[in-house]
């Protein structure tokens, strides 16, 4: 059975104290209110990772994620953070290939393949983001574009490695815009992604991969998005910064 996952990507928000307060609220609410087997992931900034990791240590439903890592093992890359460093503080997941990083930091599919390799070698699971722009969707090339992102960054992996990757489909036009993909649009692309994986790794392997939706997901739209056959949870931006909203989204899976 593939995992249900809700991950909060806090992006460049929250000071250390604010991050600890948010993590503590989420942790308490999850402990008291969540009865499903959903994996809840918190992705604070690098500054807060260690402290948030200590705070949630031992909480079985909660795991720690970083928002990025460098694609080389170590060396003269001023200001960067390596996979080894993340491993040393107990990070279990790393978000890679977010559209904001592709757009503002020129991340390429090739670099993401390197990041994926390094993470898996270190037993850290990548949360691999993919998704098209509005222009690509309007031109009707969105499906091929997303397939290409997957092929170029992930399809060198063996089946066992591929199944450790979490995919997050985040249409760029839905991120931070308040404009969510409809359930039809989300389900359509999630099915495309699963079938694309099946075409290389087989249906049984593809059925085990968790595919999350991201883009203006909130407590109101999450229940119907998560009810789609191929949607296994969400990668949440804005709504993950408010503990009540985030935990409401976590609770959107029917029990
Ligand atoms: O980019 C996202 C998560 O990684 C989605 O952000 P919003 O939920 O703020 O649209």
TrEMBL record:
Record pathway: Carbohydrate degradation; glycolysis; D-glyceraldehyde 3-phosphate from glycerone phosphate: step 1/1; Carbohydrate biosynthesis; gluconeogenesis
Annotated keywords: Cytoplasm, Gluconeogenesis, Glycolysis, Isomerase
Keyword Isomerase among UniProt keywords: yes
UniProt-annotated catalytic positions: 98 (electrophile), 170 (proton acceptor)
GO terms for MF: triose-phosphate isomerase activity
Residues that coordinate or bind substrate: 9-11, 176, 216, 237-238
Family in the record: Belongs to the triosephosphate isomerase family.
Subunit-level organization: Homodimer.
Protein name: Triosephosphate isomerase
Protein's organism: Rhodocytophaga aerolata
Encoding gene, per UniProt annotation: tpiA
